[in-house]
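Reference record
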Amino acid sequence: MTLTERFQTALASSAVDLPGPELLPERLARACARVLPVDGAGISLFFASDRRLPLGASDPVAAEAERLQFTAGEGPCLTSHATGDIVIADEATLRSRWPGYYDPLVTRTPIRGTISLPLRDELRGIGALDLYVVPPRDVGSLSLQDALEVSEQVAAVLQAQSLRDRVSSDGPAWLDAPAAERRSMVWQAIGFVNSALSIPSPDALALLRAHAYADGLSLDDLAARVITRRVPAAELSLDADTSG
C-alpha cells in the first residue's frame, strides 16, 4: 500500500470517532500522525501575520503546542509562514531561535522537535501543517518527501471539501472547527481592549500576549476571561503601566 493509500485509509477510519464536516481538519491531523513517524500534527490557517487560526490537531498535546506558539508570537510555524519555506527544528534549534516558545513548550509538553510545512495550491500562503516529535523520535527520522506527499493530500482534501461547500454555503464547513471557534474569542478580546484602552489592534494583541505569558495562560484562555470580564481591560492596562 502506498503512503497516499495509507493516508486515505487512516482518514476514513478516523471518521468513525470524528463525524461531521467541521471535524475534517482534526481527522486529517490524526491521519498525518498515523502514517508518518511523528507523535502529533496540527493544521492551521493564517489570515494575516498575527491572525493564526487553528483548524485541528491530532491530540491534546499537539493542540497545546499550537496554543503556546500563538501565545508566544514566535515559533517554527510562524517563521515558515513568513518565509514560505519548510522549517525543521530540533530541540537545540527551538531553544536558540525561539526561546519564548521553547521555554513553555518543554515545560508543558514532551515535544522536542517540529517540522512546519506550508500547504500548497489554493492554500498557498495561508495554510500550514505542523508535525511534532517526542524523544526518542527526532526530526531526522522523518522523510521530507513523505511529509510533503502527506501535506499535499491534506491540501487536496481541504480544497475538495471547500469546493463542495461553496455551492451551498458561504464557506467550507471546516472553518467552523471547534479550535477555530475557540480562537475567534481572541479577536473579540482584541476588540474589547481596542474599545476600553483606545489602542490599535497590534498593540492590543501585544498587551494580551504579554499578560497571558506572564500569567502562564494561553492567549485563548486569557481571551475567554477578558470576554467574560473576569479580567477587566483596566487590569491589563495597569499591568502594562507597572511593568515598564
